[in-house]
Every structure is written in C-alpha cells, then in structure tokens.
Specification:
By secondary structure, the chain is an alpha+beta fold. Helix content is about 20%, strand content about 40%. The chain has a single domain, classed as Roll (Pnp Oxidase, Chain A), CATH 2.30.110.10. It is built from three helices and seven strands.
C-alpha cells in the first residue's frame, strides 16, 4: 500500500530516479515521470530502452523522490520505494500526456504528435517497502 504522504508527494510532481539492474548486476538509473494507479507507481516509455529490458529480465527496482521539506533535524526529506516492476505494451502516449500536465504545465502536450501513434511501454511498480527520510520511512 502506498502511504498517503507518498501519494501527496507524487501528486506534486517530483522527478523520480528509477533504478533497475543491468545483466551484470550493476545499477542503471533513469530520471522518470511517475504517477499512481490503484496501488502501483506507473511510468511510461516510448521506446524499448535499457530500463524496459532490465525490468523484463529482473523485476527488482528502486524508485526515489526528493521531498519538498526538511525534517526537524534539518535533513531534506526523500522517499525510496523498493518493489517489483512489470512491463506492459501500449498506453504510453496517454500516460505521458496525463503526466505532462503535472511535470510540464496544465497546457502541455506530450509526447510530440509525430510519435503519439507509437504504443510504447508502461512500467507498473508494486512497492514492497519504503525507506528514506520522512513520514513514509520504516523504523
């Protein structure tokens, strides 16, 4: 279950860092736009990039967001969601358009018209645990 404090942070549109695992076990990090559908984080990709290939091979991922506040000790809050991801084909242009209104502005149109016909991929991340600094961190 995604805590309400994490839902509120994601709704504010912070860029996220998606970490997947390369075939040699090394991390691969990408900055992504993120939304929430039901009880999963969702990201969209117009191509079969490395992150898509990595998730298909190994579903373990981490997703981190920088918060907007400092905690009482003066540390900037951040959240890390550790979970399992699943790739589905299709729906990427629609999800990117929805997220573009959050990340680029209320009148944004994205992706560009000339690639909106491409189905793309959606990554759904089921969080298993949360860490970081803030109200979402496990003790």
């Amino acid at each position: 279950m995604i805590p309400d404090a994490v839902r509120a942070l994601v709704a504010a549109g912070p860029l996220a860092h998606l970490t997947t695992l390369n075939s040699d076990g090394s991390p691969q990090v990408t900055v992504v736009w993120v939304g929430i559908e039901d009880d999963a984080f969702v990201t969209a990709h117009m191509g079969e990039w490395r992150k898509v290939k990595n998730v298909r091979r190994d579903p373990r991922v981490a997703l981190s967001f920088l918060g907007t506040r400092n905690n009482p000790r003066g540390l900037r809050e951040y959240v890390v969601a550790y979970g399992e991801a699943h790739i589905t084909e299709g729906g990427a242009p629609e999800l990117l358009q929805r997220l573009a209104r959050i990340y680029m502005g209320p009148d944004a149109e994205f992706p560009p018209r000339n690639v909106r016909h491409v189905p793309g991929y959606i990554t759904r991340i089921r969080p298993l645990r949360f860490g970081g600094v803030g109200p979402w961190a496990e003790s």
